[in-house]
Amino acid sequence: MAYSRQELHLLKDFYSSQLLQDTLPFWFPRSVDQQHGGYLLMRDADGSLIDDDKAVWIQGRAAWLLATLYNTVQPKKEWLHWSKSGIDFLQQHCFDTDGQMFFHVTRDGQPLRKRRYFFSETFAVIATAAYAKASGDKNVAALSRKIFSDCIAYASGEKKLTPKFTNTRPSKAIGVPMIMINTAQQLRSTIGDERCDEWINRWINEIEKDFIKDNICCVMEQVAPDGSIIDHLDGRTLNPGHAIEGAWFILHEAKHRNNDPHLIDMGCRMLDYMWERGWDNEYGGIYYFRDVYGKPVQEYWQDMKMWWPHNETIIATLLAYLMTGNEKYARWHKLVHEYAYHHFHDKKNGEWFGYLHRDGTLAQPAKGNLFKGPFHLPRQEWYCAQLLDEYLN
Fold first, then answer.
1. Going along 42-177, which residue ranges are E strands?
2. Whole-angstrom Cα distance, residue 230 to residue 237?
3. Which tens digit of pLDDT belongs to each residue from 33-65?
4. Global confidence as pTM
């Protein structure tokens, strides 16, 4: 089943209208904190506030989204103004004295928690880079490159984080090279940095060498330092949606490199392997966790359907179809698109619910918390609309 040009035009219009008329208005302007800066994003189904703490990840993600829309969709002054609110809050409240960023702060920016990884920093890089491009602020551009330097140092082990606990069984996770690929891609596309291409190559090579297991048709979530499988509960646990997100990062890089055939093959293998392991043939949707050998998974939410793996799979299947013409990806895209917009979308209040039981019934109605906010869904709708616009013109 291929998509006709008319169907692709309709898809483009759908994603654009959902983004600008449904998703974005749910969050803004009401989420901009006029008193303390940043964003109040922990919201119930109807948009009412359920907690006024601030997740640092999502402060950066929201600032990135607003600046990116300003840069690529329309230079609306309010988008730039709202983005600045997040950038200022990050700079003023979200860095500890040791240079590491917090994970969770109070409404007025008092620190509550740090985590043992540096994802707050990666989202700060893309936010400051997008804002620097939009505003022309050279100081924010310099800050973005400085934080990117710190991320490289953390990712390469040159600079150590200070975790509260240490796991004595050595491992490494795909999340680090994955998020750093996308961070570098965003930095490269906005204000530029001469280090991006070299480091993207390194992180792609690490994923291909250590995490993709062609012999068992799988992408591992974590492995031993030498790339071998850790045959324990955590080591065997797969996250299909996360690996599929990595697949589209690789495909995006292939597109950037004039449809590099090796990277297209790599990205499609990742998507193929994890679709087969992740798609629920009985109820539809993407499982959250699977075991690499089909054994029981430790986490009790392993068969739930969460919003963001579906956003990433919508992007990956559409990108794979447009790059390869393989009708299999059009069929998969239609399956995941229809499942997601039928089950997750809140037609009454806008935006998506985040958490469903395996059978697609609602687990809880909140639209925002420490992990969910205006990022995966609006990024998917923005990226797909941009991708289709470029493809059709």
1. 42-43, 49-51, 54-55, 104-105, 111-113, 172-173
2. 10
3. 999 999 999 999 999 999 999 999 999 999 999
4. 0.97
What is the distance between the alpha carbons of residues 284 and 305, in angstroms, rounded to a whole number? 9
Contact 23, 377 (CB under 8 A): yes
Reference 171, options 233, 114, 213; nearest CA is 233
User: Which pair of structure tokens corresponds to residue 301?
Assistant: 């939410």
> Could you give the angle at which helices 376-392 and 56-72 cross, rounded to 10 degrees?
20
Q: Which two tokens stand for residue 185?
A: 């891609």
Three-class SS state of 280: coil
Residue 68 in contact with residue 386, Cβ under 8 Å? no
Give residue 163's pLDDT band: very low, low, confident or very high (50, 70, 90): low
Tell me whether the omega of the peptide bond preceding residue 29 falls within 30 degrees of 0, making it cis. yes
**CA 143 to CA 149: how far, in whole Å?**
10
- Neighbouring-strand partners of residue 54: 105
Q: What is the pLDDT of residues 211-269, one digit of tens each?
A: 999 999 999 999 999 999 999 999 999 999 999 999 999 999 999 999 999 999 999 99
Question: How buried is 244 (Cβ within 10 angstroms: 0-12 exposed, 13-18 middle, 19+ buried)?
Answer: buried
Taking alpha carbons only, the member of 292, 291, 293, 279 closest to residue 358 is: 279
Record: fold of 1-30+212-393: Glycosyltransferase (1.50.10)
CA distance 312 to 242: 8
Q: Residues of the chain with pLDDT > 90: what percent?
A: 95
CB atoms within 10 A of CB 205: 11
Helical pair 119-135 and 138-156, crossing angle rounded to 10 deg: 160
Q: 184 — alpha (psi -120 to 50), left (phi > 0) or beta?
A: alpha
